[in-house]
Amino acid sequence: MVTVPPVEIVNALRSAGCVFAEEEAELILQTAPDDATVAVMVEQRAAGHPLEQVLGWASFHGLRIAVDPGVFVPRRRTEYLVDEAIALARRRLAVGTPALRVVDLCCGTGALGAAVASAIDGVELYAADIEPAAVRNARRNLEPLGAQAFEGDLFDALPIDLRGRIDLLLCNVPYVPTSELHLLPAEAREYEPKVTLDGGSDGLDVFRRVVPVALDWLTAGAHLLVETSDRQAAIAVSILESHGYWTTVATSEDLGATVVIGTTTN
């Protein structure tokens, strides 16, 4: 039973610079089973650990997603990519697609795939990440949904029998330019793997690797969705179009999100 007065937690978090100290204190109290755990969680948060890693979970698209230490934390703006993916998936099912195979590439916790699979019945979901800790984390979130997570570099991680059979590719690749990593909040720079953040010189290096190879893995009329910044969207579109995809750009002002969608033509 937790007996620590909330005001003590709020003051400790506020002194450490937490802007939303009251809300964070409430979440810690709701999550911690005892005073000792509260003390550890407050100490970690005050030291700069991401709140979601401290709590062990993140709220994402109406789900509680398990988040382990050292794993990329799903961002709220990425819920917009999920919304776009769900709309496209329902459209495919409405025109008679018998089953929907979805891949969450660079999956981290598996939050994107979990959100899509939870919203649509009958999704056959796979996920992959190069980080072993992320794959272990994703398995915790995805196995209850009957999904599998694999460890490896992009498509090398996936079962070969998926080649040419993927209907929806959720592609949450890193897209922060290397020169701008130092501008990220300290909790991201210090507690999330660099490989999940660093997108190379213009932030699209990993995306450039994905786009041509994806053509061998996607079905006709399949969709590839990637989150970018608004200033990267035009470059992402040109990369897709140079490989024969039809393209669409979707934006959400409320979430500050930009999603580029590539659709295969054959």
TrEMBL record:
Residues 65-177 form the Methyltransferase small domain. It comes from the Bacteria. It catalyses: L-glutaminyl-[peptide chain release factor] + S-adenosyl-L-methionine = N(5)-methyl-L-glutaminyl-[peptide chain release factor] + S-adenosyl-L-homocysteine + H(+). GO terms for biological process: methylation. InterPro entries: HemK-like, MeTrfrase_put, N5-glutamine_MTase, SAM-dependent_MTases_sf, Small_mtfrase_dom. One of its GO terms (molecular function) is peptide chain release factor N(5)-glutamine methyltransferase activity. Keywords: Methyltransferase, S-adenosyl-L-methionine, Transferase. The keyword Membrane does not apply. Gene3D superfamilies: Vaccinia Virus protein VP39. Its EC number is 2.1.1.297. This is peptide chain release factor N(5)-glutamine methyltransferase. It comes from Kribbella amoyensis. The lineage of its organism: Bacteria, Bacillati, Actinomycetota, Actinomycetes, Propionibacteriales.
